[in-house]
């Protein structure tokens, strides 16, 4: 067990995967000598060479498309797209090509590609550097979408994503890259929990609060603050966005009767909408209140001086918890449904 | 190193079927020119048979047996000629129109039709044939070819990759990105552009202001324009390009100047956008007529040979028809198969619900699903 940053945990996981399987190759812009703009691939080209850690031309669709060709040839490409907002030029290769190839060929072509995507806001970047595109990918059949929230998960989940025979969109919460946490490097991928599983991060009895990626830490803070006010919040770290592991959610909501979902992404048709609908279907007679969403607004990602109004913070989450509890909240006295 | 041949497409057969000697390319046809008339007849047979497959596909679509068919009438020389240059361990990434390439590759006849019948999205095992399932999204596949070729290179293998696309695809970012990657990594890949002059209703002039083959040198990729209706020229330039790739000299580019004499697909009506005189002009350059004139003039093909090949074409067409009209619909459960390589809990729940739903009809077999009364019947 050693303390390491989130970023270093991914780096260590990548190194381990590359050592274990010579077919694992890294592809992306600036990932070689520079080690990536976030330094996640730091030192890997030096140790594995330019054919294992490939500095590609500056062409996102080109990176994804050639990775698919590499997969045809038996490689396991790990692609880094530099920022969330730059993934859109590669959209066809991700959702129409990578996601569908296994289905189209009735399983004859495996597409074990891991798409590493630093996502989310909170780092004061210019536009196109802070997006939350997860719903596009979670909406696409054939893709797995996961988002670790802490260094230990980052370390094991990246190895699982690479080992998966399915294409995995691996969302890295970039504002947590420098957060430190304990990482047990001897922990084999999937030994504690596989990447498809949700995790009860904190147990509680009054409200179920669900989040993933960068929002998990904020929700854990909110749970502490709520407990100071006498409210017991159970925080669930979703970890996998597709498929969602509903077991722990259903179990929790049956216990608490109340669901709050928090994410940075815009509200309309975001993952929160799906979770609210599914939990309502599965837990209708256990619910004491309609599921509540605390999300980014339906606006383009704002300039950085406004982003902390856009991103759900501890107080907005607590406000959502109050709503789920029917307590006085920011919408009290209004027609919430209007 | 390939060069651009002063802009005039390489031609080894004149339009009236005379063999033209060529300093650079004769070497590549030495086996055919010596005495191997069997190889020449094989080319001829594949042209005749694939034209017949094309006609049969169109007819089957008109009869409601296929959902759609993309004719390649007029492109037999480009497809058959180039395909004959490809070695067994070379890999092919083609578009949906390269049906003659797939046939030459040895794809089983029913497998050619599954995609168009709608029983499968892709008809064959890419690793048995070393040919990827054909691509519908315009210009997406050259990137896959380049990635595969990079893998060939990293593996130290001595094979090559060829990718087919049309003139419309050359406007796509992916095709241009694929050339950047291919040149930067010197990937062993051949870009084979069939300039058939029309991207549905858009003439090639909307895609390119200069001959398409001239673009590749700007990426650092040697390029050649070839008469796409001259099967010997198509075979020779493709052999050269694949040799170039296998020898570790990197990518190259072929623009085969040909013409789509039919519609874009059976859903298209070219009379709305295409001048009839243009079509007549290109009919005069028919790739099969040209090759047939050459073979007849050389004494390689006679009436007996012609009828033998026609019989083969009849047999293939009959086999395709038989396979198509008796092709079973997939089982409903196949809907859910192969979406993922591993288990996916959410999808498995949906599959489970669907199976229960269907089982409900089985329990009450006197009640057919309403949908069957209005939809889905043939």
From TrEMBL, chain A:
The protein, known as: Alpha-ketoacid dehydrogenase subunit beta
Necessary cofactors: thiamine diphosphate
MF annotations from Gene Ontology: magnesium ion binding; oxidoreductase activity
One Pfam family this sequence matches: Transket_pyr
Top-rank lineage group of the source organism: Bacteria
InterPro entries named among the record's database cross-references: THDP-binding (IPR029061), Transketo_C/PFOR_II (IPR009014), Transketolase-like_Pyr-bd (IPR005475), Transketolase_C (IPR033248)
Transketolase-like pyrimidine-binding domain boundaries: 4-179
Enzyme Commission number: 1.2.4.-
UniProt keyword terms in alphabetical order: Oxidoreductase, Thiamine pyrophosphate
Automatic annotation (TrEMBL), chain B:
Domain of life: Bacteria
A Pfam family that the UniProt record links to this protein: E1_dh
Cofactor: thiamine diphosphate
Domain spans labelled Dehydrogenase E1 component: 46-324
One of the record's GO molecular function terms: oxidoreductase activity, acting on the aldehyde or oxo group of donors, disulfide as acceptor
Native species: Sinomonas puerhi
Parts forming coiled coils: none
Keywords in alphabetical order: Oxidoreductase, Pyruvate, Thiamine pyrophosphate
Highest classification ranks of the organism: Bacteria, Bacillati, Actinomycetota, Actinomycetes, Micrococcales
Protein name: Pyruvate dehydrogenase (Acetyl-transferring) E1 component subunit alpha
A biological-process GO annotation: branched-chain amino acid catabolic process
NCBIfam families assigned: PDH_E1_alph_x
Signal peptide interval: none
């Amino acid at each position: 067990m050693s303390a390491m940053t989130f970023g270093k945990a991914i780096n260590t996981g990548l190194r381990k995967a590359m050592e274990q399987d010579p077919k694992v190759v890294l592809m992306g812009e600036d990932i070689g000598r520079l080690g990536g703009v976030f330094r996640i691939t730091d030192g890997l080209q030096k140790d594995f060479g330019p054919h294992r850690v490939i500095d590609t031309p500056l062409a996102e669709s080109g990176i994804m498309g050639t990775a698919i060709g590499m997969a045809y040839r038996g490689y396991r490409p790990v692609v880094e797209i530099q920022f969330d907002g730059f993934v859109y030029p590669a959209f066809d290769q991700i959702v129409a090509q990578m996601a569908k190839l296994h289905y189209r060929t009735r399983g004859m072509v495996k597409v074990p590609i891991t798409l590493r995507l630093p996502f989310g806001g909170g780092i004061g970047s210019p536009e196109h550097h802070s997006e939350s595109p997860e719903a596009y990918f979670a909406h696409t059949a054939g893709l797995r979408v996961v988002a670790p929230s802490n260094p230990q998960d980052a370390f094991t989940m990246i190895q699982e994503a690479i080992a998966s025979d399915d294409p995995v969109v691996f969302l890295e919460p970039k504002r947590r890259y420098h957060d430190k946490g304990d990482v047990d490097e001897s922990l084999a991928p999937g030994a504690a929990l596989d990447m498809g599983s949700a995790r009860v991060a904190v147990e509680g009895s009054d409200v179920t609060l669900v989040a993933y990626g960068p929002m998990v830490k904020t929700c854990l803070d909110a749970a502490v603050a709520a407990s100071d006010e006498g409210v017991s919040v159970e925080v669930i770290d979703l970890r996998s966005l597709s498929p969602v592991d509903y077991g722990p959610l259903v179990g929790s909501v049956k216990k608490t009767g109340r669901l709050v979902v928090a994410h940075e992404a815009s509200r309309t048709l975001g993952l929160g909408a799906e979770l609210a609908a599914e939990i309502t279907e599965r837990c209708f007679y256990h619910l004491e209140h309609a599921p509540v969403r605390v999300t980014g607004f339906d606006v383009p990602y704002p300039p950085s001086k406004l982003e902390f109004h856009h991103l759900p913070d501890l107080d907005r989450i607590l406000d959502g918890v109050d709503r789920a509890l029917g307590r006085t909240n920011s919408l009290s006295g209004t027609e919430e449904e209007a | 190193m390939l060069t651009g041949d002063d802009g005039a497409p390489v031609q080894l057969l004149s339009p009236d079927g005379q063999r033209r000697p060529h300093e650079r390319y004769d070497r590549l046809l030495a086996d055919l020119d010596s005495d191997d008339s069997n190889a020449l007849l094989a080319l001829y047979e594949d042209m005749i048979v694939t034209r017949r497959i094309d006609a049969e596909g169109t007819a089957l679509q008109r009869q409601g047996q296929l959902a759609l068919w993309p004719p390649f009438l007029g492109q037999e020389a480009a497809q058959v000629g180039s395909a004959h240059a490809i070695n067994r361990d070379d890999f092919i990434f083609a578009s949906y129109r390269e049906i003659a390439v797939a046939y030459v590759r040895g794809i089983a006849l029913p497998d050619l039709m599954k995609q168009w019948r709608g029983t499968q999205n892709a008809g064959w095992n890419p690793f048995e044939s070393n040919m990827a399932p054909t691509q519908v999204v315009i210009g997406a596949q050259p990137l896959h070819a380049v990635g595969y070729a990079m893998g060939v290179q990293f593996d130290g293998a001595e094979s090559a990759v060829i990718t087919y696309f049309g003139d419309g695809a050359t406007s796509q970012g992916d095709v241009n990105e694929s050339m950047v990657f291919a040149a930067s990594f010197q990937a062993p890949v051949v870009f084979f552009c069939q300039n058939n002059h029309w991207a549905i209703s858009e003439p090639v002039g909307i895609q390119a202001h200069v001959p398409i083959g001239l673009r590749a040198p700007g990426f650092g990729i040697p390029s050649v324009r070839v008469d796409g209706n001259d099967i010997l020229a198509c075979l020779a330039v493709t052999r050269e390009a694949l040799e170039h790739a296998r020898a570790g000299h990197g990518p190259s580019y072929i623009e085969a100047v040909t013409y789509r004499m039919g519609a874009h697909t059976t859903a298209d009506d070219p009379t709305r956008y295409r001048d009839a005189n243009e079509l007549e002009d290109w009919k005069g350059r028919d790739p099969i007529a040209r090759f047939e004139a050459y073979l007849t003039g050389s004494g390689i093909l006679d009436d007996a040979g012609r009828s033998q090949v026609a019989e083969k074409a009849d047999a293939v067409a009959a086999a395709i028809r038989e396979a198509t009209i008796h092709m079973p619909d997939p089982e409903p459960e196949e809907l859910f198969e192969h979406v993922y390589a591993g288990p996916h809990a959410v999808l498995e729940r949906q599959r489970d619900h669907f199976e229960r739903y269907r089982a409900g009809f089985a329990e009450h077999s006197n009640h057919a699903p309403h949908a069957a009364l209005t939809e889905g019947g043939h």
